[in-house]
Every structure is written in structure tokens, then in C-alpha cells.
Predict the 3D structure of the following.
Amino acid sequence: MTIRPLLATVAILAALVLAACGDDDESSGTVDEPAAEVGQSETTTATTTEASSEDKKAGGGDSKGESAPGTEIVASESQYGSILFDSDEQAIYLFDKEASETSECYGACAEAWPPVLSDGKPLAGDGVEAKLLGTTERDDGSIQVTYAGHPLYYYAHEGPGQVLCHNVAEFGGLWLVVEPSGEAVS
């Protein structure tokens, strides 16, 4: 008798993990690996990374008019090997549909996959090659971080240290985590 409730719980959790990346319009999400957290993060509730991006934008310089520090990009270990994160341990993705530094992710796409924004020049943290970092201007004038020519994104429903949506098909392309070399994890 105790097996039945356990199986039901496992089935519900599996459905939630799969639905986490595939609840947006135009989605057909699949996840290659089970959801896992990176590092020591014990966050169990997903937070939107838009708030993290907004917090970074609001940080700004001092009253002397100095420019704001840029978003720091770091490499950290995950279930996919070493991949890019921001300094708040938010996993970073690229959208394989994009063939240039110009973003094609707006509207519902940008709500599900917020761009990695920076007020200043992005900073290369541990394991990241500074020469691969760049920026591109979005339609609204905000500055999006690029790496090896790819605009970078977060997944809105991941908490720090989580990598839930690698190799997910949404909005006409695949969302893939990024190696420090700039290549998408295959």
C-alpha cells in the first residue's frame, strides 16, 4: 500500500519538472536530464531572474556619476560540466535560433527567457574569457550581454544554482547552457 502513494508523488514531481520549461506558448519542452541544483544552494522555490537583472540595473554608480559595474559572468560546475552563470549563480543559456549577436527573443519569449542585461561593461569572473564577452543593444535600448557572439539569457523559473531547462525546444529553437569556450553544451 505504501508504494502507491510514493509512485504518485514521483509521477507528480516528474510532471512538474517537465512542465517547468514547457508552460509557455509555442513550447514543446523536453529535458534531457533530471532537474538538479549546482553548488550548495538549498533554494526550493523558483525565483524570477528578472528581479536579479533589475537589481543589478538599479545598483548603479555613486553620486559622482561613475558608471555602474557590469554584470559578472563566471564559470561553475553543473551536471553538464563547467558552464556559465552570473555572480548570483543563475544559469545562463543561449538560443540556437539566433545566428548573430542580435536578439530575436522579445515579448513572451523574453518573459520566459529574460536577457542577461548589464549597465556597464560585463565582467569576466572565474573561468570566463574576457575576450569572448560583449554586448548588444536590444530594441528597448537596454544592453544585453553576449558571449562568443551569442546573446545570453536566463530561464525565468530557475533559482540560484538550478539548471532545469537545458536542451529545451521553445519559441522556434533550442535553449542550451554555455561552456566557458563559448560553445553550447550538446
Notes: The first strand starts at residue 36 and ends at 37. The chain has one domain: 3-177. The chain has three helices and eleven strands.
